[in-house]
Specification:
alpha+beta, Tumour Suppressor Smad4, 6-stranded parallel β-sheet, 6 helices, single chain, 22 strands, about 40% strand, Rossmann fold, about 300 residues
Amino acid sequence: MTRSALLVTHTGRRQSTQHARDVARDLVAAGFEVRVIAEEGADLELPPEVARVDGPHAADGVEIVLALGGDGTFLRAAELARPVKAPLLGINLGKVGFLAEAESEHIDQAVKDIVDGSYKVDERMTLDVRAEYDGRLIAQSWALNEVSVEKGQRAQMLELLVDVDGRPLARYGADGVVCATPTGSTAYAFSAGGPVVWPEVEALLLVPISAHALFSKPLVTGPSSSFTLTVDPYTSFAVMCCDGRRTWDLPPGAKVTVERGDLPVRLVRLTPRPFTDVLVAKFALPVEGWRGNRR
């Protein structure tokens, strides 16, 4: 039976295109059917055995999806992998990234592990979101990291009523609110002052952004909770954004409901590291003082 892989690449970087050529060549040599996104294929100069595919079904039937780039490339690949439950391996070619499993200097070993089947697959929870106005559905999407509802006009504060599990919690005058997964706790939610949550924890996060309120602390709820964010009818319009990639304008009076997603994202883990070690590496945390290593 032929094995197959989809390659998603940040073609704007020369380093990425070279790595993509090497990965594609090695996988083809190992007997894989390799696919690339059609619009990326022209920049990659790949051998003719590599298939150019297009559209939302590019990952249909593949054994694995590989994302070569930063977190943005990974999120783009996740949009293709999630609907078909394909495992997704991120190879980080950027400066900082929490979603990738392998670094650029370990690409050869990563490809060998894929060929050998020496990897495990973890599931990361996602968010499903829908926005309604006047009883009509005006937007529906999902997110791996976060859903944000933010002010649409820079000079005006946004008024939002937040409900948790169908009960009113607080009315915020703020720049917006971030609803995040544990995976997204180190992304936008972290920048807004939210807590770092270990990825194996099943929870939802709600983080107000620059709220003019006494009660403006980030909240962590159970995974079965739901958030409803209502844009005050007398405030300015808002903007809803999923993973920093998909955006919609929300009129005053719109309601946004965020809850645990039906489909997770399946992440490939080659040599799993404790999340503590990942944090230390990504943030260069000081674990050694002038007295030396105390472990």
